[in-house]
Amino acid sequence: MSALRAEGVVRRFGGLRAVDGVDLTVPSGVVTALIGPNGAGKSTLFDCLAGGRVDAGRVHLGARDVTRLPAHRRARLGLARTFQAVSVFPGLTVVDNLRVAAENRFGSSAPARLLGLPDPARGRTRDAVEAALDRLALTEHADTPAGELPAGILRMVELARALAASPSVLLLDEPASGLDDAQTERLRRELRALAADGLAILLVEHDMDLVFGVADTVHVMAAGRIVAAGTPDEIRRDARAREVYL
Ligand SMILES: Nc1ncnc2c1ncn2[C@@H]1O[C@H](COP(=O)(O)OP(=O)(O)OP(=O)(O)O)[C@@H](O)[C@H]1O
């Protein structure tokens, strides 16, 4: 079963159908990319999947219909996202940024806290934070306030924060923007490794070298619709994809 699925999703802004009846499946264990020209509707569709308003159609997370669930409820069900503009808390250390995300996912037991009892959520939070720091080689920056880090590292913190929530579905909005070539290659390897671990990944990205180097399936969007879908090789040769974007 696909981890995340949009069926006939529509999102309007006044008279504009920014997302105009989109079907999209994001399976576990692969990287699915969404590309298209500026204004195609990629970010709007991304928001529909992450928890924004949907005017028609359905969004399923696993077997569950989440169309009417807000973002924080979807996050607790295992959907994590990053933002186009890095959105970490600049005044918090890296480890605290990750802890906030992990606590939002796992919660923490107020009765246990009040009674001084062991809180199982605390252990899960700590383990998830440590694993995310380690995975993205951020341990040396753990105690640095996020606002003091350079843009490339901050992008990795943004990704680590999403991973700290131990997601089953990861939505990435232009994760390579602001990265140099070496950092982009690092990101590519990490995305392949995460997919190999079984994560469902949806990547919205303008860096075509990254998209074609990392994606298993590429969907091309234009004027609110998916106009082509296939493997990177198929999309490179697709007349409609070339006409609207490549
Ligand atoms: N809040 C909004 N109010 C009105 N129109 C909007 C709003 N957000 C997006 N749009 C319009 O919806 C359409 C799709 O925009 P969207 O940002 O989803 O495209 P995109 O493919 O993500 O573009 P980009 O690659 O530049 O990020 C555009 O015509 C845009 O102007």
TrEMBL record:
GO terms for cellular component: plasma membrane. PROSITE patterns: ABC_TRANSPORTER_2. GO terms for molecular function: ATP binding; ATP hydrolysis activity. Residues 4-246 form the ABC transporter domain. InterPro entries: AAA+_ATPase (IPR003593), ABC_AA/LPS_Transport (IPR051120), ABC_transporter-like_ATP-bd (IPR003439), P-loop_NTPase (IPR027417). Keywords: ATP-binding, Nucleotide-binding, Transport. Pfam families: ABC_tran. SMART domains: AAA. PANTHER family: ABC TRANSPORTER ATP-BINDING PROTEIN, CONSERVED COMPONENT OF ABC TRANSPORTER FOR NATURAL AMINO ACIDS-RELATED. This is ABC transporter ATP-binding protein. It comes from Embleya hyalina.
